[in-house]
Amino acid sequence: MDFAATFRNNRVRIFTLLILAMLFFAAVQGMETKDWVITVMRGLAAGAVVFLVASGLSLIFGLMDVLNLAHGEIFMLGAFIGWTVYVRPDTFFDVLTPILLVAVGFALTPVWNAVLGRWEFKGWLAKLVPWLAILLGLAMIVFSFANYPITKWHPDDFGNSPITNALELGQGIFVLPEPLPFEPFHPVVVLMGLLLGGALMAMGIAALSRHGKPTTTSKPDRLPYVIAGSLLIMALLIFVANDALSSWLFEMNSTWRFFIAMAVTTLFGGLLGGLIESTMIRPLYDRPIYQIMLTLGIGFIIVEITRAIWGRPSFTMPKPALWANTGEGCPATSLGEALTNQCSTMLLFDGRIRTYNEIFIILIGILVLIGIWLLIQRTRLGMIIRAGVQDSEMVEALGINVRRVFTLVFAVGVALATLGGVLAAPSTGLSLEMGVSVLLLALVALAIGGLSSFPGAAVGAVLVGLMQQFIIKYGGIGINLPFLEEPFKPSPPLVPASVVLLMVIILLILPNGLFGRSD
Amino acid sequence: MGNLLEIRDIHTYIGQFHILEGVSVEVPQGSIVAMLGRNGAGKTTTLKSVLGLTPPSKGTIIFDGQAIQGMRSFDIANLGIGYVPEHRAIFGALSVYENLLLAERKKGDLARKEDFIFTLFPDLKRLMKLSGTRLSGGQQQMLAVARALVPDNKLLLIDEPTEGLAPVIIEQMMAAIEELSSETTVLLVEQNFAVAGKLASEYTIIEEGQSVKNGVMADLREDKAAVHRYLGAA
């Protein structure tokens, strides 16, 4: 490793980082050590959440040149989905069956493609028939969904609103409501409606996208049947065992339930990302401005759907058991103690930090950082991504299907954002506005770190988190500035302003961000 | 033996610009065909049209008996066409080794071709761990050609491989292309007529987006008037 050359080429970067590091260490002069430790830990925790959102944005933007303005709302959606699995497992299982049944039809898309090869509609029929199929399928799905009893909260019914559900769960007095019956239609009618509706829609969409393209002659192997069959079996099993599954998940230790909620949400995020990319983003590859407008629109739609389902008021997510204890033996004095006593807080250098925020969230952030780094540096997919960020056209000329990689990267990016949401929920609560503030912080983090640089996203996120927490802290204790008599206390609106100011200063020194390259 | 590649009267637009207005090229199996013409004539666009990077709006392209116009670029490449673009397009973020590994189409391609590649370009062997940005222009060009040799390609589309290279490197590059042409058919775009004249067995000339003349290279070498007229050089 040529240290001299590396130092020479990155002089400005290294000096900037050194100065920032010195400033943060100098801040220790203005406050007690324990307060400094707490503020740094809080900064890292905030940075970890921002990192989860920013890393996805950076991967997507770097590889596909798509700035996904819906990323903040996806973060919010992740929180709401995670909350539902955690607080209302009955609702979760109720919704899972219809979704799986509709998915069966779409999983068979390769089969529809092969079957449709035998039929050729001429002229205007070629457009009309698929659209009829799509509309009919959609109508069947909507009809079935409307008649499918989903036991859930009611935002207007205070006794059964998300706020109350969460509060009661936190106090341990929440009881799952009785499941609603199927009326007036027999369950089989509704289930078949979902299955056939999904199949019809999938057939219609397959027919539309074949129009005008060279026909595929390949026969599908067994895989689509296997996938569709598994989805169908899962859907029916969940349907039959619905009550048992709901009770099982509800009565589970809340820590494990939370982990399940995290896994389900992340998986859902990945599937949603893949769906959005292949259906909405892909058709607009050569029209980047429309792509950005589209992502903005998707963001609005997500907010409205969320409002329609969960209502407007914000609510909480009770902390899982592992981080909830505030009584005997807490705050803990060591990590081991924190785990055994399941403490909510721990003492670090005499400062009291929260185990969930300042230990667990940071831990997940580090694990994700390592995981993605390994993916990018050590796998063939990572090699394709790194090459594609530079020149995706050449990658395709080498014989690699970059479109599939785009879909995968978009899916991973969205999955990370939803993970960030479910992770943030127990700490900050859930609101319809939570996406906007995190998106701003993530964009600033990317600007600071360098727009398509993945390590830049990490460093930028940490800087943003630290800056935010330090300014909040100074809002309480004040900064002793040499030319002022009274300590200066930044008011709350100055918190986001200061983060943006940090970005401006860094961009003045390094116009492409800390690790960005001009290309 | 037949033509491995036939470009039949293609028209290609880039945006609104009608770049190719009727280009036809035949590349016989096992030959090196030089595509000649002035700057901006449409040579690079022709290569890109074969690969589907700038798809033709009219005309057909037949590769190994199959019509490939309208196919996705990666599908075309996987039929056995390698591309060495103008300005090399090697990936600076990857090491030399990774650049080569990326070009694999089947696992083990690089392991099988390593010896052949290092015979043609011995310098690459010691550069394997370096990142692409640290290579000189000549080394990048060698890497770009080596990359196209990793999978089993039937046809190589090579765009101005000697541009900006020092004379001694040009010699090396020419020797390499001559050597690899024993296994692979080559369609070579080359502004440098000295290089093209020595390497290619046949030629085709593009002028203002149209094919204007083609034939056997031996004849063109004698025809100073034609060389001057179409290529503006002696």
Structural description of this entry:
The complex is a heterodimer of chains A (519) and B (234). With 519 residues, chain A is mainly alpha-helical. Chain A has one domain. Chain A is built from 20 helices and 2 strands. Chain A has helices at 3-9, 11-26, 33-64, 71-87, 89-107, 109-116, 125-146, 162-171, 187-210, 223-240, 242-251, 254-281, 288-310, 335-341, 355-378, 380-397, 402-428, 434-449, 454-477, 494-509; strands at 345-348, 351-354. Chain A has a two-stranded antiparallel sheet with strand order 1-2. In chain A, strand 1 and strand 2 (351-354) form a beta hairpin. Chain A is globular and about 80 Å long. Chain B is of the alpha/beta class. Chain B has one domain: Rossmann fold. Chain B contains 10 helices and 10 strands. Chain B has helices at 43-51, 73-78, 96-102, 109-120, 123-127, 137-149, 167-180, 193-199, 217-222, 224-231; strands at residues 3-14, 17-28, 32-36, 58-63, 66-67, 81-84, 155-159, 185-189, 202-207, 210-216. In chain B, strands 6-7-8-3-9-10 form a 6-stranded mixed β-sheet, sandwiched between helices. Chain B has a 4-stranded antiparallel β-sheet with strand order 2-1-4-5, covered by helices on one side. Chain B is globular, with a radius of gyration of 17 Å. In chain B, 44% of the residues are buried. The interface between A and B is medium-sized, with 19 and 23 residues.
Order of helices and strands of chain A: HHHHHHHHHHHHHHEEHHHHHH
CATH fold-level topology of chain B: Rossmann fold
Order of strands, widest sheet of chain A: 1-2
This entry's quaternary arrangement is heterodimer
From the alpha carbons, calculate the radius of gyration of chain B and give it in angstroms: 17 Å
Q: How far is it from the N-terminal to the C-terminal residue of chain B, by CA?
A: 33 Å
Helical segment count of chain B: 10
Structural class of chain B: alpha/beta
Which percent range describes the beta-strand content of chain B? 25-35%
How many runs of DSSP E, i.e. beta strands of chain A? Answer: 2
The geometry of chain A reads as globular
* Major sheet attributes of chain B: 6 strands, mixed
Please tell me the total number of domains of chain B: 1
Query: Helical residue percent of chain B?
Result: 25-40%
Q: What is the overall silhouette of chain B?
A: globular
Low-pLDDT ranges of chain B: none
Share of helix among residues of chain A? over 70%
Helix tally of chain A equals: 20
Output mean pLDDT of chain A: 88
- Rounded to the nearest angstrom, the distance between the terminal CA atoms of chain A is 25 Å
> How much strand content do the residues of chain A show?
under 5%
